[in-house]
Amino acid sequence: MRALGRAELEALIAEATVDAYGEDEELTGLFTMIEESLAVPFGTTVLGVEVIVRGVDLAQDGRIVALCSRGTARQRIGILELPMPTPAPDGVEWIEAYRHWSR
């Protein structure tokens, strides 16, 4: 995926937050777009270990997290800290919009 420019990222954010009132609703809008658009499951490597990303969730601390698994082990990893595989899964542009919004 090519890097998105500022205007493209801001257009995605505007689309996700069009009806939002306040930061909490903006976060929910971005989470919804990631949840609906990110093609899961997909594999990636975290600290040298292969994991499968099964979905995303909105954590109690207000972060969007990836739901990762390896065998029977499960771990939630902040979506902004999650290394993306090459090629990146469809919908990754929404993660980049979230990254831009969260700055």
List the helices and strands and how they pair.
Blueprint: H1 6-17, H2 23-37, E1 42-46, E2 49-58, E3 64-70, E4 73-78, H3 92-102
Antiparallel strand pairs: 1-2, 2-3, 3-4
Helix pairs in contact: 1-3, 2-3
SSE sequence, one letter per element: HHEEEEH
Count of helix runs: 3
Overall mean pLDDT stands at 95
Question: How would you classify the helix and strand content by structural class?
Answer: alpha+beta
Strand content: 25-35%
- Extended strand count: 4
Radius of gyration in whole Å, from Cα? 14 Å
Question: What is the count of distinct domains?
Answer: 1
Kindly report the spatial arrangement of strands forming the biggest sheet: 1-2-3-4
Please explain how this structure is put together.
The chain has 103 residues and is α+β, with helices and mostly antiparallel strands. It has one domain. 37% of the residues lie in helices and 27% in strands. It is built from three helices and four strands, in the order H-H-E-E-E-E-H. The chain is globular, with a radius of gyration of 14 Å. The two termini are 21 Å apart.
Tell me briefly what this model is.
With 103 residues, this protein is α+β, with helices and mostly antiparallel strands.
Summarize this structure as a short list of keywords or feature phrases.
103 residues; alpha+beta; 3 helices; 27% strand
